[in-house]
Amino acid sequence: MQNHSIKEFSHSLKEFRVVLPMSVDEYHIGQLWSVAQASKNETGGGEGVEVKVNEPFDETNNAPSPKLRANGIDFTHGQYTHKIYHLSSKVPGFVRILAPKGSLEIHEKAWNAYPYCRTVITNPDFMKDDFYIIIESFHAPDNGNTYNIHGLQGRDLMAREVVKIDIANDKVAPKDYKPEWDPCLVGSPKAGRPPLPRDKTGEWMNKVKPIMCAYKLVKVWFKWFGLQKRMEAFALVQEQRLFLNFHRQVVCWTDEFYGLTMEDIRRLEAEVKEELERQRQEGPVRGMTVSEKDEES
């Protein structure tokens, strides 16, 4: 993998902080379970997720470049995944017009060395080195008030915009809303946790136990004359939408994954990989499509 310089992203960089009513260890299982479930919800009608690789990495096998380092810690092993997202309805219309047929495939490579994870998103067939998104996630047992957990310096630190996502009270687009994915309606009987309060103040983040935060630093590079600013802004809006909806689902699905082990998760991932391949070839398009209103955001 090419070594993408963080300095290139100083003009399009946001840190999203997603506070969740669970422990860091619970989220490790819950995030993987929910990714598998969400992938099924986003796959069908010729579009969706294709899992190419899902295997361990270390310093000699599937090693990331540059090496993983976050919060003053070196991470040398974990799980590596390579997925291809087959898109058409999930990108802006003006990109569909400009992009050659068959080029709307997004590659996602992720090195999950929990509690740190680096995800690199590219379009190697069409945009090549002119587009990528890097998401660095660090998961900590706090309520999202650590000032600089990613260790940003200089121009990047000054340019960073922090966005704290309130999964209980932030506005959800009507087309994304489902009562079964509303953490103010759905609690976890297995974990003994009631639904979150809908109070608009976010005060629940200072009261609920256990508590944790996913610090997600998103860096966008889109080098396309006349569209750079528009596409970088669009990408950040869509990442915020994805983080809000996905983490609402994670909390509402707690009873589904509560008590599972990592061995259970790996078995599930193998089953889902086969199911996704079948599902992608049939049925209707599913998931978060892009409307004209989204493109104007």
Automatic annotation (TrEMBL):
It comes from the Eukaryota. GO terms for molecular function: phosphatidylcholine binding; phosphatidylcholine transporter activity; phosphatidylinositol binding; phosphatidylinositol transfer activity. Residues 13-274 form the Phosphatidylinositol transfer protein N-terminal domain. GO terms for cellular component: cytoplasm. Coiled coil: none annotated. InterPro entries: PI_transfer, PI_transfer_N, START-like_dom_sf. Residues 276-297 are annotated as: Disordered. This is Phosphatidylinositol transfer protein N-terminal domain-containing protein.
